[in-house]
Amino acid sequence: MDLTQGTVEQKNGRAKKMMLWFGIVSLIMGFAGWTSAYIVSSKRTDWISDLELPQAFLWSTATILLSSFSYWMAKLSVKKDDQKRGTLFLMVTLALGVVFILLQFRGFSQMLENGYYFTGPTSNIKMSYVFLIAAVHIVHVVAGLISLIVVLVQQLRAKYSSQNILGLELGATFWHFLDFLWVYLILFMYFVK
Question: What pTM was computed for the model?
Answer without folding.
Answer: 0.89
